[in-house]
Amino acid sequence: MSYQFELALRQYIAAFDGTNNNISSAEFRSRFDNLYHKDFTFRPKDGKIMGKDGFTAVKSKDPLTREEVYEKEARKLASGTKVTLIHFRKIGLDCVDIKLGLANGEEESTIRVVTTITAKQAVVSREIDESPESNHFFPKKLVEAKCESAVYKWKEFGQYQTNM
């Protein structure tokens, strides 16, 4: 199952080659639909806010719906963002760890997500914070996201007649 998802991901990433005029909007939408499940949600990493007392507070961001993710990705495509796949690792039952490099002009960044796959499509993606401040908790966050994926899959069992 993760093999078909990886192929769909690589086709989707191929659209982000740094130019914004190599793919039609209908073709981009088709690749997006092949990659993301109709019930897809994206959970961005938590924001950090420095308080007046000098302590850092964590503020949870709201999850993004499938359509919000599509609009965000379409803006990236239109602005000429180049995306490269840094790694794709299977870390559990229908759960993959993906790291992408994003480049737009002089600005470069990376994003790391743990994605749960169902029906050969991404159904839940959780962004992992790799900042130096959170390095102490990085393994915990990765394991937490992996366990969250296992819980999601456990809930999925028994919903369909083909599951045992």
Helix-strand layout with pairing:
Blueprint lengths: L1 H13 L10 H11 E8 L3 E4 L5 E4 L4 E2 H13 L3 E11 L2 E10 L2 E12 L2 E8 L9 H19 L8
Parallel strand pairs: 1-8
Antiparallel strand pairs: 1-4, 2-3, 5-6, 6-7, 7-8
Helix pairs in contact: 1-2
Indicate the low-confidence ranges by residue numbers: none
Number of helices: 4
Strand content: 35-45%
Distance between the termini: 18 Å
- Give a short account of the largest sheet: 6 strands, mixed
In N-to-C order, the SSE pattern is HHEEEEHEEEEH
Structural class: alpha+beta
Output mean pLDDT: 80
Structural Rg:
17 Å
Q: Numbering strands along the chain, what is their spatial order in the largest sheet?
A: 4-1-8-7-6-5
Number of E-type strands:
8
Helix content: 25-40%
Estimate the global geometry from the Cα principal axes: globular
